[in-house]
Here is the input.
Amino acid sequence: MLTPFDDYPVHQTALPVAHAGGGHPDHYDRFWFNGYDEQMYFALAFGLYPSRGIIDAAFSVVHDGVQRSVFASGRIPLDRTRTSIGPISVEIVEPLRVNRILVDAAEHGLVADLTATARTPAHEEPRATQYDGTELRTDSTRATQMVTWTGQLASGGQDIRVNDGTYGTKDRSWGIRGVGERTPAAPRTALPQVFFLWAPLNFADECLHYVVMENEAGQPWLERSAGASLLLAPGETVELEPLQTFRMKGVGYLHPTWGHGRWHDELAVGGETFKVAELDTIAPDCVHVQQVVRAVWGDRIGLGVLEQLVIGSYEPGGFRGMLDGAPE
Here is the structure.
């Protein structure tokens, strides 16, 4: 099946661009952005699932103790340059340099016109590959880039100030990851287990980035730092002070209805609003979080996020069951 993008010299196999990932049902290709200061946080997720025929996106804001989201899902366009679905669009103004996101969902309380400009080069994280028995569950690549934001943002009818130079992150990932409804297979022989930390941090003159995924014994199966790790050397650490929390379900992660790669209709749009203080910290759809953090590194003071996801046992932290949290 030929599409307009086949006219560009981008092919990786003898197949047209529309045939992705060797036909694996969990192949995905995603944009992800966040932006934040000490008073507000916003994020956008935008994914394509070629083998499932689905495109979806979500945009979410935390401000004044409220988390508000809009979701959109539909049939994937044949033209992969059409990076829009419903009220949400992502524009590639200058590849690896400038992106623009547009949200026109006043009926769900969200309107945005925001431009991200690269603050750093894109950093290719290690390829993540994981099997569940003989089943390939994860095989993906992620490129992480620090950005700054300009533009306009409104939530719940209230304009939110986005100062020029507001910090944020651009995350582009693609490959195979569990999305949508699980394909028919034998029952799992072991319970799911995830320990994941992801920390892009901004300082005035430098940026740090750290990512780790560990098994239940605390052994890393993916780890990388760029610039420095959170423990730089004996006596030299980066202290993180949490300022506000964003539940990642706001952009589809672990969402019971708007999870990534699920078919809803030719076009479906929905929204939701929660008071942050009323969300259950260890509810299944709330355990995946990003916290805006103040970062102190010697005499430097910066701002960043610490993403956290823990499911199942994790011996170093004292986690035992699926979602029981750490011991007091």
